[in-house]
Structure formats: C-alpha cells, structure tokens
Amino acid sequence: MIKKQSVIALGAAVTLSGCAAMYPQSRDAYIDEVANYDGMFKSLALIESTSVATPFEDAVANLESQVGSCISTDLEEVRVGAHFTAGSTTLERNNVQFNKVSDERAELTLQQFNNAYWGQPDGGVYILAANITRDDEEQTRIDVYTGTNYRPVYDAIQQWASGSEACHGIGGKD
What we know:
Blueprint: H1 2-20, H2 27-36, E1 45-52, H3 56-70, E2 76-80, E3 88-100, E4 105-114, E5 125-134, E6 140-147, H4 151-161
Antiparallel strand pairs: 1-6, 2-3, 3-4, 4-5, 5-6
C-alpha cells in the first residue's frame, strides 16, 4: 500500500510542478518564450519594433503618466456561468510595472493576476513586455513582445510615448 501511495504522491508532485512551469516565471523568460515560440499558435505572437519621433526622456515621462492612468489595476470580480448553473467567480487584476533602468532604457511590463491560475509568477501571468530605448537624440525605439490580442495596448503605448493624453480605449477609457 505504501508503494502505491508513493507513486500517487510522485504523480501529483510531477503534475503540480508541470503546472508551475507552464507560465514563464520572469520577464526575461516571457520575452524569450514569445520570441522563440515555434508552435501551432506562432501566428498569434506579436513581436514588433517601432520608433517614435520623441526624445527618450519625453517618451519615458509620457509613458509613466499614461500607463498609470489608463491601465486599471483595480481588483475585478469576474463571474463565469450560465443563468441556471452555479458558475464560479474569479478575481483578476492587472499588474503594471514601468521602470527606467538606465539613461538609455526603460521597461514596461504588464501581468494579469487571476486567482484561478495555478503556478503563475508573483504579480500574475505575463501578457506584455516592452523595451523602450534611446534611438538617438530625437527618436525612441519601442520593442514589444505580446500576443496579437494585445495589439490595442501596443498601439496605445506608441501613442502615449509620442505624447498622446488619451487612453485609446484601454481600460474602457477614451
């Protein structure tokens, strides 16, 4: 009986560790996974670079202002289920980090926490990473790694870096 229980425990441990490894556990691991993914959903990856005609310092200040006001980090209750079913409720929250890491580079990271996801990293599942770098004195480069369903966020990031004060529909705001 002990042998059978050990096999069951080992199977459970392997299964749980597999779930934990399902999500990239760091920003760098997320970028690497998006950049090198070669599976059947490769067409859903969005890896793009663009330059905006805004000096780096201005682009960073613009992004700091708009990211915080447009991307909601409020805890949201999401109910799943039909009228006659019990359904379930999950809690979701965006986690946004914007860091100027040097005089030449800043990083924007968007994660989404969902209490129903096992093995997610601290802060939630990574859904977008953008590297903002100085191209020259008048240009700022934005490299993004995300999925195609987050293109509106990437488009807004470009607009924000250029000085737009609108939310462009992000967070349900105009």
